[in-house]
Write a structure and sequence with these properties.
This protein has one domain: 434 Repressor (Amino-terminal Domain), CATH 1.10.260. 56% of the residues lie in helices and 0% in strands. Helix 1 packs across helix 3 and helix 2 crosses helix 3. The longest helix is centred in the N-terminal third of the chain and has 14 residues.
């Protein structure tokens, strides 16, 4: 996943929660412009701490796995 895909996921999750970009930005300590840039795919760098705060605010998680990992049914099951 690259930052453009992350931005699409963030936008989708934010909209599902009926949050504005400003509300999400305030909740995680970022500017609305940063959220907007991320969602548009215009941002080239965003620190890991910011990404983690953003994901946490949206009840999302970061998963690390091998690049060519094939998705299995276990990957699709909700965690504990």
């Amino acid at each position: 996943m690259d930052l453009a895909e992350l931005g699409r996921q963030v936008a989708q999750s934010r909209k599902q929660r009926r949050l504005s970009q400003s509300e999400l930005a305030a909740a995680v300590g970022l500017s609305r412009q940063t959220i907007s840039s991320l969602e548009r795919g215009d941002i080239t760098d965003l620190g890991i701490r910011k990404v983690l705060r953003l994901l946490e605010a949206l009840d999302l998680t970061l998963v690390v796995r091998p690049l060519n990992h094939l998705v299995t049914l276990d990957d699709l099951r909700p965690g504990p």
